[in-house]
Description:
Layout: E1 9-10, E2 24-30, H1 37-47, H2 68-73, E3 80-86, E4 89-95, H3 103-112, E5 115-121, H4 128-140, E6 144-149, H5 158-169, E7 177-179, E8 181-184, E9 194-197, E10 202-205, E11 213-216, H6 227-240, H7 246-252, H8 259-272, E12 276-280, H9 289-298, E13 311-312, E14 318-319, E15 331-340, E16 344-353, E17 355-356, E18 360-366, E19 377-383, E20 386-390, E21 393-397, E22 400-401, E23 405-409, E24 419-422, E25 428-429, E26 439-445, H10 449-464, E27 469-472, E28 479-483, H11 486-498, E29 503-506, E30 513-516, E31 520-528, E32 535-545, E33 552-556, H12 565-581, E34 589-590, E35 593-601, H13 609-626, E36 629-643, H14 647-656, E37 660-666, E38 676-684, H15 691-698, E39 704-714, H16 717-728
Amino acid sequence: MSTKKTATKTAVAVIETADRPEKIRNIALVGHSAAGKTTLVEALLAATGTIGRAGTVPEGTTVSDADPVEVAQQRSVVLSVCPLRHDDVVINLLDTPGYPDFTGELRAGLRAADAALFVVPATDDVDPITVSIWEECAALGTPRAVVVTKLDAPRASLASALAACQRVFGGDDGQAVLPLYLTVGGGPDEAPESLVGLLSQTVYDYSAGFPPKEVSLSDEVAVDGDVSTAREALIEAIINNSEDESLLDRYLGGEEIGVDVLVDDLETAVARGTFFPVIPVCASTGLGLAELLELLSGAFPSPVELDPPATMSLYGTTVEVNGCAADGPLLGEIVRTSVDPYLGRLSIVRIFSGTLVPETAVHVSGHGGESRGHPDHDTDERVGQIFSPLGTTLRPIERAVAGDICAIARLGSAETGDTVSARTAPLLIEPWEMPEPLLPVAVHAATRADEDALAKALSRLTAGDPTVRVERQAETGQLVLWCLGEAHADVVLDRLRATGAHVDTVPLRVALRETFTGEARGHGRLVKQSGGHGQYAVCDVVVSPLPRGSGVQFTDKVVGGSVPSQFISSVEKGARAQLEHGLGNDHVQIVDVLVTLVDGKAHSVDSSDAAFQMAGGLAVKDAAANGGISLLEPLATVDITVPDTHVGSVLSDLSGRRGRVTGTEPDPSAPLGMERTVVHAEVPDAELTRYAITLRSLTAGTGRFTRTFARYEVVPGNVAEALRTASTS
Length: 729
């Protein structure tokens, strides 16, 4: 295991950055957690001389995976920014986590990027999680390309991987997803040594490593596929996406279209998001790295070609930001926040407009996250030194122009998702959509001394991870952290404990309630005489059940002033307090009842407000002893979206959870060939505490669900006692 230091490192020399947005590319690498994204980033950094030697994931020496959890688990957990320079273009590679528990970091990476590079291993089929990310990018019109990796692994097959990509990414005929290169050489247990360019018809020989040697294509070259057929399909796809309408007629007429024309049209189609090239790459041998760098710098769009996110003033009025201009108004967004042991709060910022320089006064705004424990905030702060991040290494820079990504230290109020703008013209960017955390974890400080430490740790945690929702449940008194999954929960707890807070997890308690099953009469009597001023109050009440959701209602039908009018409200206060507190040691709240005051007695001297409040509570308790009480549990409306192949398993599992299916329907957003079903059901909250984990297991990670509170319902007698015990232990 590596002993790699995790503290942020700072370099002394100021590095050169892009001087204008046209020279910047922001590209998010996406794919499942074993696709090889981090290894590919290392290979690209080493190939361009950004780092001296590529690190490895098993050794924990990679640039992007520096978090202790990432080193231990050998997978990315947080978003990492790794810039490199190629052909005078700065390419900001955003290495995103591939595990579904860290979707928040993935979406932050997509927000900061202008294009997405999908990493698909040649050893496996395209996994459903990658497909869902492709759908998200398609909905946003994000330019995309595909890299097929792990060509040196046993059972690797470029042809199989390409066919899978065309099937799930390419729509009806797959003709929008085509390779630009085919592999040459290699075998069942050997990696290919060369690529052949379908447009240039040139062989790029990597037998001696990176950079490749160019040789002419000859009949003796053993290409993995039919070059002429693949080339013809590629040219036709490029022409079909060309803005030159005469090009197709010229091609069909037999005219030889120049490679320069085809390349220009190819780059335009990629930047527009209508064509998705595939490039085979082997990070361990360097195969395809030069071709991939050429695609990243030449085909993917610069920030000036895309519109900035929707922006408004602090008062909610729409503000038009005219493109990505270095001389425009300052507008940036914090896409990741962490706490460095030496620099304090560290913010990774994507600049959408303007230029940020050190010692600048800025406005930091955060709105719309109150439901997740992020109250609205607006603060003026001063930016000190700014940095270009390379993983955990911070390199001082003199400026960050529109389109670039930089790091800022010591913004005390900054949180992930906040907007950074000029102090004189504060703006607010519409936040990106975050996944809803659906796995509750109840925690508490191990000792009283840890409570303050836990509060500070939670503040740091929520500032950096907006996917965590912190909830203090009023009825159970528990502190609940809502997470995206078990792996996410483990990371959250590790980070809390790393701050010095001793945190224990406890069983989650469900907020149960009780109600009366029928009408019951109760008598409350408080008579105390101990010399001097005593206490005297007597009241009779009738408690009747009400429909679900009615709450507690009170009325009086006192005749003849047996209870003086000034004490009727006292009886109501006492009754309501007793119902809210509950009738037993478990303190389960009583709801959906009507309390009617029908009679009572008072004393001219000893009766008081306090006495009648106590008598009102005693009367309610007596009514409960004389009548029947039912236990109520919260019920949730659940919408579950799953592939059709898993519907049976999901329905069977719901039945075992006391769920009631209310209907099913096809998912209209499902891509062709990947039919999905939406299952509508009502399920008790007690059965949903671990459902996020179960559903992922049942559906191989492809299922998702939403839940909303529906109502309270009577608990069946055969589970009432067990549920009461579990929720009050």
